[in-house]
Records
---
Amino acid sequence: MLLLRWALCWPLGILLCLVQAEPVDLASMLQKAPLQAKPHIIGLRRESVPVYRRGKIASFKTSYSGVLQLGVPKQELRVVFDTGSGNLVLPAAECKSEACLMPHRKLYSQRLSKTSVPINSDGSRVHPNELGEQVTIGFGTGEITGEFAKERVCFGDTQNASVDAEVDAVDHKPLCVEMSIIVAVEMSSQPFKSFQFDGILGLGLPGLTMSRNFSTFDVIVHSGLAAQPRFGVFLCDGEFG
């Protein structure tokens, strides 16, 4: 079992335009991107949880989460966009931790997905009756223990695909790639029990991931789907900004 520790650092919000990874040959990346590629926008929802001291609200923990669609048939989960880590972590259907059993939490089922493949951290396939690797990752005040899988991941939801359809400058349609993910079989109650999101989408560079195949931005850039290797963040008033 591997043991890693990172800090959770909630971002202010996200506009996926996309993507800056660790120093690489940007010229070759941009050559792969089609000229007609547009920036992709993923709408986020803001959530604030009060922090109490001596029985009074002293501050708020604020997170920004967006929707992912995984596998075939699609499973829709909401993930927090986290600048302090690099992996995509989703709670497993087999997880029996208190945080996983909260009534609002959706769980990801590998068994129900036709495109999910159990793997080890190096990408090698885990065959039937074999035990796969596990990893424990610390997130500031809590931690998760998970296994590895390769899955089709789509960023954004179909409900937002028609938003501003007449605006030609951006693309609201889901952006889909095949990538390696971490499926959490255990999640600590703190901090995960108190938040409404299901999993964690790490925005960090590949150095914060298990490998480049786990880096969301790296996978998107090398897939040629990004207009440019950049991402941006913007804020507005209200719960969904």
Note: DSSP finds three helices and twelve strands in the chain.
---
Amino acid sequence: HDDVVPHLLPDVLVHCRAGSAPVVVHSPCVSVAGRAAPPRLCAVFRGILEPLPVEGTMVGQWQLQHQNDVISKLTIRMSNSCTRLNLALVGGGRSCVADLRHACSGSEVGRTASEADASLHETWLYASLPSQELDLRVQLMHGDTLLVQFRQQAEGIAELSSQVRTARAVRKRDFAAMIGECPKKEQPDTYRSRVFTRQLAVSNLWHLREEEARATRRRPADRTPAEQSLVRRLASRVDSEIAFAEEKLAAL
């Protein structure tokens, strides 16, 4: 429409009318030679657009300059499911990506930061990068300033952290099935085919006494009252050892 032409300022207009051939009309801003004028810039990008994170949506990227003039870059991004907030050192690969967490509460691991935490100001979020032997914490200040603090991990913390993660995984997967905590009940043949592999995984972390091994070879539903009591004491011992390791890790 003619009334919107002054606002759009197109290089070329094509007028169409029924029964007539299209008529091409050049805009007054076109040069005498008939070439279109250079397009006007309507927006300017500022900042680093590439490389974008391999996964998830970028929240922001900051440049860190250390006291010795070494410059590195740090990215904060959302996971694909928008349920976790990640921290990544640019160029470090997957070993330099970690979930951001809130501060620990006693022996409890701090909850994972989520999408809602991406805009929190003056709240510390923590991350651990065992591959770099670094602990970091970040805080979004007013505006777009990110306060970053880091320290070298205490000796042995990376190994202890790996042990705690392994213990949690075995406790949740193999040990839970052995003591009957899994909601899905296995058939007798299925349990018997898997029990030795599970016992091996558990015994690599916690010593299984002979009577405990014998009791856990039987399906939870088939155990005698004495065996059930023995398995409950075993579960209490395993949970206590995991809690002790978590407390030790939190104190480092």
Note: DSSP finds five helices and nine strands in the chain.
